[in-house]
Amino acid sequence: MLFSDRLEARIAECGNPICLGMDPKLSLMPVERRHSQVHTPEDKIRFFYMDILEECEKRNVKPAVVKPNSAYYECVSIEGMRVLHDLIAAYKSAGIPVILDAKRGDIGKSSAAYADAAFRIYAADAVTVSPWMGKDSVGPFLEHPANGGVYALLRTSNKGAADFQDMPVKDSTAFFQVAQKLVEWDNGNLGAVVGATHPEELEKITSFFVAAQHEIPFLIPGVSIPGVPGGQGGDAKTVLQAIANGGGKRHFHVLNSSSGLNFAWQRSGKEAEYAAACVDAMESLAEALH
Ligand SMILES: O=c1ccn([C@@H]2O[C@H](COP(=O)(O)O)[C@@H](O)[C@H]2O)c(=O)[nH]1
Fold first, then answer.
1. Signal sequence: where (predicted)?
2. Atom of ligand 1 nearest to the CA of 259
3. Is residue 264 within 8 Å of residue 225, measured between CB atoms?
């Protein structure tokens, strides 16, 4: 089954388009309030996300997908990467697909090795890639036997996105040129990263794919949760409206919040309730988007 079909079925099944980012920030993970046996940063990360998973299962409130960003695990230690691997396995076995946010891409043979690492070693369902090096760089991810999803960076959420992505190219912009290539390269497993922070661009990008009669799933990072610091300011309802205005499919695209959902306990200040606060925030986001 193609990734786009699996994703659409998953969003319909769980009833929300939420992508729970999993970007550990140790100072905001008060795990020792619940577990006295936490001794290392790796334990802290493991307990934190396992508590959130347990709470999701207990309340039957699950995100459509999760997205750990590998940087936050790699910078902890080699063992941190083992924790990333184990969390991917745990969330997958709870039926939640995992997007590994690693932003890979290289010459063909090196991309093939990156693809194998993402899909076989980490066993992720999807991975983020940079399209900058072209078709032979993205191809090995699309052709990997795991048949996983491949989200290419298209119009990112950061301020610097404008530096290159908005550059005028052939009567349009660089990101529209990339969008055209994505349509050409897609084999049913390709998606695009489009930031939540620029809804006007999101609407235009949606219209582009709709006009090409070739919608691909968007991973939309940059969504903030009201009252929780650290997000990028994107508003989830505005994002869905932009997709609707562009004529896009309703249950196809996922909206990512990492710090907003992970550290939602900051709203009440009740540190020991970090897992419940995360799932509360997910539940109210899901309701608001229903
Ligand atoms: O354009 C992009 C691409 C990736 N990201 C990643 O998503 C999360 C966002 O975290 P928040 O805490 O919700 O802001 C993070 O892993 C980024 O590296 C992005 O923000 N924008």
1. none
2. 12
3. yes
CB of 197 shorter than 6 A to ligand 1: no
Q: Indicate whether this model's pTM tops 0.90.
A: yes
Which residue among 19, 69, 155, 223 has the greatest number of ligand 1 atoms within 8 angstroms of its CB, and so is best to mutate? 69
> How many other CB atoms are found less than 10 A from the CB of residue 197?
24
Side chain identity at residue 127, one-letter code:
V
Non-local CB neighbours of 241 within 8 Å, separated by 6+ positions:
199
Transcribe 152-183 into DSSP letters.
Answer: EEEE-SSTTHHHHHT-EETTEEHHHHHHHHHH
Which residue ranges form the domains of the chain, and what is each CATH number? 3-288 (3.20.20.70)
CA 261 to ligand 1 center in whole angstroms: 12
Using a 6 Å cutoff on CB, does residue 262 contact ligand 1? no
Atom of ligand 1 nearest to the CA of 230: 12
For residues 122 and 130, the answer to whether their CB atoms sit within 8 Å is no
- Note down pLDDT in tens along the chain; length 290 residues: 999 999 999 999 999 999 999 999 999 999 999 999 999 999 999 999 999 999 999 999 999 999 999 999 999 999 999 999 999 999 999 999 999 999 999 999 999 999 999 999 999 999 999 999 999 999 999 999 999 999 999 999 999 999 999 999 999 999 999 999 999 999 999 999 999 999 999 999 999 999 999 999 999 999 999 999 999 999 999 999 999 999 999 899 999 999 999 999 999 999 999 999 999 999 999 999 99
Does the Cβ of 156 fall within 6 Å of ligand 1?
yes
Nearest ligand 1 atom to alpha carbon 258: 13
258 lines ligand 1 (CB under 6 A): yes
Cα(68) to ligand 1 centroid in Å equals 10
